[in-house]
Design brief:
single chain, alpha+beta, 5 helices, 21% strand
Length: 98
């Protein structure tokens, strides 16, 4: 089994949401925080570095399908998903990964 993750990041004011998929959540969070990659990346432009939600999947195909589904939702539905996992929208980096 190759675990993959769908994750949601936000900025410090929790006004912007970013969804992503990865097979290594700790590494990917580090890349976002350290601004590795494209200088025009969404997370860099909007300062989305704070993990507020994640879910595990058995394979990348399922994770990508789930990410696309969530991306199609209105913000209100995404907020309900986040609150079902993290009611206070607490930044999860210190608790889980980094």
């Amino acid at each position: 089994m190759n675990t993959c993750y769908v994750y949601i990041l936000t900025n410090k004011n929790k006004t912007v949401l970013y969804l992503g998929v990865t097979n290594d959540l700790s590494r990917r969070l580090s890349e976002h925080i350290n601004q590795v990659g494209n200088i025009n990346a969404f997370t860099r432009r909007y300062n989305c570095y704070h993990l507020i939600y994640f879910e595990e999947h058995d394979n990348i195909e399922n994770a990508i399908e789930r990410e696309k589904k969530i991306k199609g939702w209105r913000r209100e539905k995404k907020e309900k998903l986040i609150e079902s996992f993290n009611p206070d929208w607490k930044f999860l980096e210190g608790d889980f990964f980094v």
